[in-house]
Design a protein that fits this description.
12 helices, 15 strands, alpha/beta, globular
Length: 299
């Protein structure tokens, strides 16, 4: 798999991003054998079967810098990198990408198209009803892509609602709920952050909402002169501020695999290895977290 190469991780232009999206579609069409989960008693035996098979299939969403296909056609992003390290230590030497749309990750996991969601997916109570999360690798606030100079002064979700502005975000993104909770009426869903940037550039949307690292990353990579990123935004739900946290996801019955993954993840957190892997992809020490999945799953 592709390894991060310091600042080279960010040297991907608009054309390469579009090529990466094409690669996602092509790879998504390739059929792969599935690992059956018929026997899920006592926490499941998927880990043992993955060891025997020698490969684990990762569900990717094509969102930089979480997990995506790079300009060289190789899988990259912090999540595949972390997954490769952990599964190697668990006795599974190879990781295989299965690209899909973000909104299809949970259904794809539960229909056994792949074994693990490796896309930095936010943990929330609704998703916790459908999948089993590891403890999060990071915590994150949001940010907006707006036109240069931020002419409508859109600095949080409430501003968007009061201005009657059109907000774009990704299919299945948590930002949809944050916008709705703030009273935003005009919400457009798009495939990814590149499509969001283009929508703002072209005037089809006034703002694109995404995670702070995603927003900064796509503007830096495209070198767009027509848009800019806002400062970080803390969503508010039912009057309470929200700090999101992202994690790997497993099928509900596979507690043995999740627990083994968690043990290795916590070793990487304690040693600082996790931050060393994630830093080249734009993450900072402030975004590392000791939150647990249980905390984030609690309504």
């Amino acid at each position: 798999m592709a390894r991060p190469r310091g600042n080279d991780t960010y040297r991907i232009g608009r054309r390469s991003l579009l090529a990466g999206a094409a690669a996602l579609s092509a790879l998504g069409a390739v059929g792969c054998s599935r690992v059956s989960t018929a026997d899920v008693k006592d926490g499941g035996d998927l880990l043992e079967r993955l060891r025997a098979q020698g490969v684990v299939k990762l569900g990717l969403a094509g969102e930089q810098p979480y997990s995506y296909i790079g300009k060289d056609g190789e899988m990259t992003g912090y999540a595949p990198e972390v997954a490769a390290r952990i599964f190697e230590r668990l006795g599974v030497p190879r990781v295989q990408p299965f690209p899909t749309e973000f909104g299809s990750l949970i259904s794809g996991l539960n229909s056994q198209q792949f074994d693990v969601v490796a896309a930095g997916m936010y943990i929330n109570p609704e998703r916790c009803q459908q999948v089993l999360f590891a403890d999060p690798e990071y915590q994150m606030l949001d940010a907006f892509i707006v036109r240069k100079g931020n002419p409508k002064n859109l600095n949080d979700y409430k501003d968007v609602a009061e201005a009657g502005a059109t907000l774009a975000t990704g299919v299945g993104y948590a930002e949809i709920g944050y916008a709705e909770d703030a009273g935003v009426k005009n919400i457009m869903t798009l495939p990814d952050q590149l499509a969001g940037l283009l929508a703002v550039e072209q005037g089809r949307a006034d703002v694109f909402a995404g995670t702070a690292v995603t927003v900064r990353n796509v503007i830096k990579e495209t070198k767009s002169k027509r848009v800019e990123a806002t400062e970080e935004i803390q969503p508010v739900v039912d009057g309470e501020p929200v700090v999101d946290a992202g994690a790997f996801a497993f099928r509900k019955a596979e507690t043995n695999l999740r627990d083994a993954f968690n043990r290795e993840l916590h070793k990487m957190k304690d040693s600082g290895e996790l931050l060393r892997i994630m830093r080249p992809f734009g993450f900072s020490e402030e975004q590392m977290t000791d939150l647990t999945a249980e905390e984030k799953c609690t309504p």
